[in-house]
Amino acid sequence: MKFITDVMFWVSNGLLIPVILGLIVLFVLSLLLLGGYLGTRQRQRVHFKKYSPLFSTIKYSGLQPLHDTLTAAKRATPFEKVALDVLEVSPAERSYLISCYELELEKRLARPKILTKFGPILGLMGTLIPMGPALVALGTGDVTSMAYNMQVAFATTVLGMFTSGVGYFLLQALRAYNQRDLIWLDYINDTLNDAKQQA
Fold first, then answer.
1. Mean pLDDT over residues 26-51, rounded?
2. What is the largest CA-CA distance in the chain?
3. How do residues 59-114 score in pLDDT, each as one tens digit?
């Protein structure tokens, strides 16, 4: 039994370095994504100011002003490309294009999801692994070794929670942007369907 527990102890201690490296990678990724979000936020503000008035007047002005604006944009963004295609294809193709665009938007959330899920996992592992040596050091009276291991445990906890927090924030913000685009595309589709039924 002692041999099995010793092997488990060695394996868990051997995982500490990979866990710390993983946390460092996630931390760097979270900073990069956070910096990229600032640019995304600015682009989304311009996007909202450009298209929100057009969608709010579709009920009165129809889809032609939106179509003209999308045509002038020359498919500069994925949304403008899909929205213009939705205006020009058959009903079956419209549903297909919107579904494909929704899948593409979900793919863009992959990295924030990784931060949200793996940040706490690696942070918890980085907390628990040094606790074993810290308790051993406490039992032998080696306060210096115990303090060092506790320092590692707290540092990994902080990194894990930070990356998870950044991931959760980005996930919610980007999902809100994606949801707005999908609502707009569904509105175009429903408006075209209503116009066809009334014709």
1. 94
2. 87
3. 888 899 999 999 998 888 999 999 999 998 888 899 999 999 999 999 999 999 99
Position 184 scores a pLDDT of: 95
In this structure, are residues 19 and 122 in contact, taking their beta carbons and an 8 Å threshold? yes
Distance (Å, whole) CA 131 – CA 111 = 30
Mean pLDDT score, 22-36: 95
Return contacts of 99-107, CB within 8 angstroms, 24+ apart. Answer: 101/181, 101/182, 101/185, 102/178, 102/182, 104/78, 105/178, 105/181, 105/182, 106/178
What's the 3-state SS for the chain?
Answer: CHHHHHHHHHHHHHCHHHHHHHHHHHHHHHHHHHHHHHHHHHHHHHHHHHHHHHHHCHHHHCCHHHHHHHHHHCCCCHHHHHHHHHHHCCHHHHHHHHHHHHHHHHHHCHHHHHHHHHHHHHHHHHHHHHHHHHHHHHHHCCHHHHHHHHHHHHHHHHHHHHHHHHHHHHHHHHHHHHHHHHHHHHHHHHHHHHHHHHC
CA dihedral 33→26→135→12, nearest 10 degrees, is: 160
- Phi, psi (5° rounding) for residue 142? -85, 85
pTM for the whole thing?
A: 0.86
